[in-house]
Design goal:
It is built from 22 helices and 7 strands. By secondary structure, the protein is α/β, with parallel strands linked by helices. It has a 5-stranded parallel β-sheet, sandwiched between helices. Strands 6-7 form a two-stranded parallel ribbon.
Length: about 475
């Protein structure tokens, strides 16, 4: 038995990654408020048909387990086998004419044979012809109380507004990579298959959010490679690069290591890897970095396995979030251009070099922060001096240390300043301060203060006069 079929979810509990839909459907059954028609929208292979069947079973089950279908009664078995008299499935991709929906319209008046509801599941409903929809519309407007419709489609945009407004609509989402990986792990354990974690990750990456695709890829790999599946086996199937290689490329960008970037791209290209996929996955990596820096490693918004999160945590250390965000921006821009560019490799090379320069250039925000710290140090020392000379001296020494550290940042930031048209006379001021007045009277430092909105020297000077 093929894996996608064997591991198809049989209950709401089994459904992976569509919690928002499952919750509402369960609640509808619990409160006995079942809408006349439901519409499931979402990409292929994420469980629209499966969910339709579970829902149909739950509605017609003879001995339900709470809201879950029992899976054993006559109705459940017949629905699962596709031969229930009261549940009709129509694939509109191949049956889209008026004649195809006519039997539905004709049978609606008859009471269900052996169940509570007569249920019609119409898959790929956007393919129905306008005439077919028009024929259905009247039934849909005022269906008999024993009739329920479940529509499913990959293209919600193509469903007429008059239809959508008569349905309870659910948008199913792509299943997160880590959810697919845990499901694949479960399947491997059950089947006695040894698979590397990164092999399962590669399969999940290749499936792009579709559980059915992931399971059939695993199926193929098992029949091809036997009971042991490695990352390399899986990568070959999808033309993906290994997780390690991808993370290495991200690290090179963060370090501004242009040589490694160019060498990696050369290697991927000559190995025939899918360059567009690499760019998408790189963007996903940096998006994860942004999420991690903002929400921490336990965030549910992270789309990563525990191994990946470990690497992300390391990479996030000591990198300014502003820079990571700007790299993301640059990569998103590259994704956009990739759609119509001919020389994919050149675009990727240039974009990644630009991203690596972003990674190593200080932002205006960082510069502002450094200057603020500098000012805080200077003001603090003058206040302390009021109390005791000794304490004042110590404070001055300490703030000199801060100032010297900040000098480094300021020198780096001069580049950014120049870019922002905030030109200075001397692009690299040497600031070696031995006393407080040196700081306050230094013309170059004053020039920096003047160049930055909101950062004036007057308050420092006033503090000095006190
Ligand atoms: Zn049942």
């Amino acid at each position: 038995m093929a894996l996608p079929l064997k591991y198809r979810p049989m209950t709401f509990d089994d459904v992976v990654g569509q919690e928002h839909v499952v919750r509402t459907l369960r609640h509808a059954i619990e409160s006995k408020r079942i809408a006349n028609a439901y519409l499931f929208i979402g990409p292929r292979g994420i469980g629209k048909t499966t969910l339709s069947r579970i829902f149909a079973k739950a509605l017609n089950c003879l001995s339900p387990n709470g809201v879950e279908p029992c899976g054993k009664c006559q109705n459940c078995l017949e629905i699962a086998a596709g031969r229930s008299l009261d549940v009709t499935e129509l694939d509109a991709a191949s049956h889209n004419k008026v004649e195809d929906v006519k039997p539905i319209i004709d049978s609606v008046e008859f009471k269900p044979a052996n169940s509570r509801f007569k249920i019609f599941i119409i898959d790929e409903c956007h393919m129905l012809s306008n005439a077919a929809w028009n024929a259905l519309l009247k039934t849909l407007e005022e269906p008999p109380s024993h009739v329920r419709f479940i529509f499913a489609t990959t293209e919600g945009d193509k469903v007429l507004a008059t239809i959508i407004s008569r349905c309870q609509r659910f948008d199913l989402r792509r299943i997160q990579t880590n959810d697919i990986v845990s499901r694949l792990k479960h399947v491997c354990r059950n089947e006695g298959v040894k698979a590397e974690d990164d092999a399962l990750l590669a399969i999940a990456r290749g499936a792009e959010g579709g559980m059915r695709d992931a399971l059939s890829s695993l199926d193929q790999l098992i029949s091809f490679k036997g009971d042991t599946v490695t990352e390399e086996d899986a990568l070959g199937v999808f033309g993906l690069v290994s997780r390690g290689a991808l993370e290495g490329l991200a690290a090179a960008i963060l370090k501004g290591d242009v040589a490694t970037i160019l060498k990696s791209i050369e290697m991927f290209d000559s190995a025939g890897k899918n360059m567009r996929r690499i760019s998408g996955e790189l963007l996903a990596h940096f998006r994860n970095l942004v999420v991690l820096q903002a929400l921490g490693p336990d965030s549910k918004s992270l789309e990563a396995t525990p191994d990946q999160i470990q690497v992300l945590v390391e990479q996030a250390k000591g990198v300014d979030p502003g820079r990571v965000f700007r790299i993301c921006d640059q990569l998103a821009d590259m994704e956009d251009k990739l759609r119509y560019v001919l020389s994919v490799r050149t675009l990727i090379e240039m974009s990644l070099i630009r991203a690596s320069r972003i990674a190593t250039t200080a932002t205006v925000e960082e510069l502002m922060k450094a200057v603020r710290e500098l000012r805080k140090g200077a003001v603090g020392s003058s206040r302390a001096e009021l109390g005791s000379d000794r304490v004042g001296l110590e404070t001055i020494n300490e703030s000199n240390k801060t100032i010297n550290e900040s000098n480094k940042t300021i020198n780096e930031s001069n580049k950014t300043l120049n870019d922002s048209n905030l030109t200075l006379k001397d692009p690299k001021p040497k600031m070696d301060f031995s006393s407080r007045s040196d700081i306050l009277d230094d013309p170059k430092l004053n020039a920096i203060f003047k160049a930055i909105p909101g950062a004036t020297v007057t308050d420092i000077k006033e503090a000095r006069q006190v």
